[in-house]
Amino acid sequence: MAQQTFLLDVQNASRTFGGLKAVSDVSMQIRKGELVGLIGPNGAGKTTLFNLLTGVYEPSEGRILLNGVSVGGSKPYQITQKGAARTFQNIRLFGNLSVLDNVKIAYHQHSKHSVFSSVLRLPSHFRGEAEMTEKAVEFLKIFKLDGKKDELAKNLPYGEQRRLEIARALAARPQLLLLDEPAAGMNPQETHDLMNLIQWIRQEFDLTILLIEHDMSLVMGVCERIYVLDRGMLIAEGTPNEIKNNPKVIEAYLGQEA
Ligand SMILES: Nc1ncnc2c1ncn2[C@@H]1O[C@H](COP(=O)(O)OP(=O)(O)OP(=O)(O)O)[C@@H](O)[C@H]1O
């Protein structure tokens, strides 16, 4: 029987820093089109797992397959080319570039015009450049940022910077979009709008999404499945309802508050 290929297949991945096992023997399988949450108390290993998925760190043990192909040892930009793009917990925009240029940078790798035509300023370069600007503006429209395209990214309010980061990740045309705390610092209205936006872009761009989020209303409201990490280990996986009522999960979160 043919083996099922998952879009993302994490097989017994671990990552140690000195004596600390930040991610310990984690396995997770995500099918194309799913919207999955990754939660856990502070220091559980969520960002470290994202860093393994995106080539920031290599797993100390285990394998990570994207579309059935191992991404072990790939650099972050190579993983982006293989179809996974991310946002960061601490926003990482090019603050001194315009909002438009932040998106164009991501779009650049998908542009058809060659470096050769750019250097020689051939007509195809200008056509390519105009096309890229047009596409970038389309992405900005989705995130209601087109009116601010010429502002410096660093001058946007926090919630808009978060949206711009997602627009930039999306412009890289990923199959898998990894969002690290997309609602952090947003007010309830912004969070609510973001939930709708995440669901909309998933449909529109045929995306698979994995998101880390502390805002439980967002996680429980949009995710179909949730993985829970605690002290580097996967302690639960299930639907939002299953996770809400899972004693191990409740205990992990109560431990955090104690
Ligand atoms: N580069 C590193 N060097 C040493 N320790 C690290 C490194 N990166 C992460 N850690 C440690 O690994 C553990 C997991 O951290 P991580 O940031 O992945 O957790 P998290 O679940 O994302 O936490 P939070 O919700 O607070 O962002 C923590 O104890 C952290 O201090």
Order of helices and strands: EEEHEEHEHHHHEHEHEEHH
Largest sheet: 6 strands, mixed
End-to-end separation in angstroms reads: 49 Å
Strand arrangement across the biggest beta sheet? 6-7-8-3-9-10
> Rounded to an integer, what's the Rg over CA atoms?
19 Å
Q: Name the shape in a single word.
A: globular
What level of helicity do the residues show?
25-40%
| Arithmetic mean of pLDDT | 88
Task: Predict the CATH topology of the largest domain.
Answer: Rossmann fold
CATH architecture type of the largest domain: 3-Layer(aba) Sandwich
Question: How many β-strand stretches?
Answer: 10
Number of helices, counting only DSSP H or I runs of 4 residues or more:
10
Task: Name some characteristics of this structure.
258 residues; alpha/beta; Rossmann fold; 2 domains; 10 helices; 10 strands; 23% strand; binds adenosine-5'-triphosphate; transport; L-phenylalanine transmembrane transporter activity
